[in-house]
Design a protein that fits this description.
Blueprint (H helix, E strand, L loop, with lengths): L1 E8 L12 H5 L2 E4 L1 H7 L5 H12 L2 E9 L8 H21 L4 E5 L12 H13 L5 E5 L7 H6 L2 E4 L8 H18 L4 E6 L15 H15 L3 E7 L13 E6 L2 H17 L11 H15 L11 E5 L14 H9 L4 E7 L1 H10 L4 E6 L11 E11 L2 E3 L9 E3 L3 E6 L2 E6 L9 H6 L8 E4 L6 H4 L5 E5 L36 E2 L1
Parallel strand pairs: 1-3, 1-4, 4-5, 5-6, 10-18, 10-19, 11-17, 11-18
Antiparallel strand pairs: 2-3, 7-9, 7-20, 8-9, 12-13, 13-16, 14-15, 16-17
Helix pairs in contact: 3-7, 4-5, 8-9
Bound molecules: zinc ion (ZN).
């Protein structure tokens, strides 16, 4: 069996003022041909999973093109064209060399281009148009995908990750290959139901570690196990900051029978709708979050239930670079500096200018910095202060997070500053703090910290959940505020819950094929 594999991965924050161009992908991950297999084999992500499953099943994978970049603003038209041309041209060429038995698309599902509100839907429809109705097409998406009828209508099997943090990317990468291979081998039709709810869910309340999203995940797993006709069920939270009309929560079910697909998708959608109020996130100021962190420290003595000394983490979810935020916001930093408490760390402010200044001055020197607050006015003013340059490093390490385990992490040159009593890491490339590699290269032992501030919504928890004495989120102004009503929304419907608390849902199925 011979499958072509390719895709692009971008979560677009339409409110960001940082455009997404080909260079954005090139500076992050843009792989063609064999390099795609070489670089992504053995990494616990979608593509790494698909490669392993294809190897295990004896399937030949023809690598075309795969690109990822950190979430940012709208994709430029030239970049949209580049991605479409590379992928469609590559799939056509692979099929001409030897007939393909299927096409695998590994996508995010929440991108937005200046010239298209649904680039993933466009791509799937273009692949379908190019190869006709007989070519099996499998698609794997992120949990935050804004699933459209074009995506479901143009593919044969569409699945997504079920966990947030997305610790099952690898498993779902394997899954899509197994499902598509099984369809090709057995020749059955796959029916897929899509239910879109008029419901906006934000990352701050979407963790599947506990809470309502965890309960929905349990329900998906139970329904998949109960009905042998069901191939896959996914609850997509959507990503409202994309600001497209369909950036709403949705449920999909792929099944061998239309009846099973519809019944199961509707059952989950009804459950989610009944529990919609449970998805309301808490929204604390930085001062409230810091006070709560101090309360946690007092209560636990800074120890976890096993007696290990560990910090309390305050995550600034509204400046999460994993959602297109600038990561140079200063609201939480200002709070840490105001408290000036020993053994505290803010990780990490994106500020290449300050990194350059520290590199030029060298370790052991004190510099006057204008730190952060340089990208978007919502994220606060730059902090003016004298800062002692404690360490310098290349900012490179191997990922220890279950998300992307063994992948190369690179935050560019990284400096550790001390401003008063507070440690601050400053990086040159935007990235969430996924594990302790960041602290290690900066020369810090996190066991000795009392409070640590990070810029992330949920993904940091993949590693840190069991390595903290407490967790508290703060939600100062920024590009990922939990109240999306504060933005100048162009396409996201204000008629959806919770922007409209009286919003109703008529209980109807959106789409089935
Ligand atoms: Zn996601």
């Amino acid at each position: 069996m011979r499958f072509a594999i390719g895709g692009f991965n971008h979560e677009t924050n339409a409110f960001s003022n940082v455009p997404t161009n080909v260079e954005s992908f090139r500076s992050y991950t843009l792989l063609h041909g064999e390099e795609l297999l070489q670089k992504l084999r053995g990494i616990r992500g979608y593509v790494g999973g698909s490669i392993d499953e294809a190897d295990a099943e004896g399937i030949e994978l023809v690598p075309v093109m795969y690109c990822v970049t950190n979430p940012s603003g709208l994709i430029t038209p030239e970049t949209y064209d580049y991605i479409m041309d590379e992928l469609l041209g590559g799939f056509r060429k692979a099929h001409e060399e030897a007939p393909l038995d299927g096409i695998l698309l590994e996508l995010h599902g929440a991108s937005h281009a200046e010239n298209s509100v649904d680039p993933e839907g466009d791509l799937i429809q273009k692949v379908r148009a190019l190869f006709g109705p007989e070519m099996p097409i499998g698609v794997v998406l992120d949990l935050h995908a804004n699933v459209s009828e074009a995506m479901v209508g143009g593919s044969d099997i569409l699945i997504g990750v079920k966990c947030y943090p997305h610790t099952d990317q690898y498993e779902q990468g394997r899954n899509i290959v197994r499902l598509l291979a099984d369809k090709v081998r057995c020749g059955y039709d796959v029916h897929e139901a899509l239910v879109k709810l008029p419901l906006i869910i934000v990352p701050a309340s979407g963790s599947t570690l506990k809470g309502p999203a965890a309960e929905v995940r349990e329900l998906l797993l139970r329904l998949e196990a109960e009905d042998p006709d069901i191939l896959n069920m996914t609850f997509f939270h959507g990503f409202p900051y994309t600001d497209v009309s369909y950036a709403l929560a949705s449920v999909t079910c792929a099944a061998r029978s239309m009846e099973s697909a519809e019944r199961a998708a509707m059952a989950v959608a009804e459950y989610v709708w009944e529990h919609r109020e449970d998805f309301a996130p808490e929204s604390l100021t930085c001062a409230e979050a810091f006070d709560r962190a101090l309360g946690m420290l007092e209560k636990t003595g800074g120890k976890n239930p096993s007696g290990e000394t560990l910090p309390v983490i305050i995550n600034e979810s509204s400046d999460n670079p994993g959602s297109g935020c600038p990561q140079d916001g200063t609201w939480l930093l200002q709070e840490f500096l105001r408290r000036n408490m020993k053994d505290t760390l803010v990780a990490s402010i994106y500020d290449p200018e300050t990194v350059k200044q520290a590199l030029e001055a060298g370790v052991g020197r004190t510099i006057h910095v204008r730190l952060g607050g340089k990208t978007h006015p919502l994220h606060g003013e730059p902090v003016e202060a004298d800062a002692y340059v404690k360490t310098l490093s290349d900012g490179c390490y191997l990922s220890r997070s279950p998300m992307g385990l063994n992948g190369k992490a690179n935050v560019g040159p990284l400096v550790l500053l001390m401003i008063g009593n507070v440690y601050v890491t400053v990086c040159s490339k935007r990235a969430q703090i996924m594990d302790d590699g960041h602290m290690e290269v900066a020369g810090l032992d996190y066991h000795k910290l009392k409070i640590m501030g990070v810029k992330s919504a949920q993904h940091f928890r993949g590693f840190w959940e069991t390595r903290v004495s407490g967790l508290v989120a703060c939600d100062p102004p920024g590009l990922q505020k939990s109240d999306v009503g504060v933005y100048d929304l162009k396409l996201l419907p204000r008629s959806a819950y919770p922007l409209n608390p009286d919003c109703g849902w008529d209980g109807s199925l959106t789409f089935i094929r």
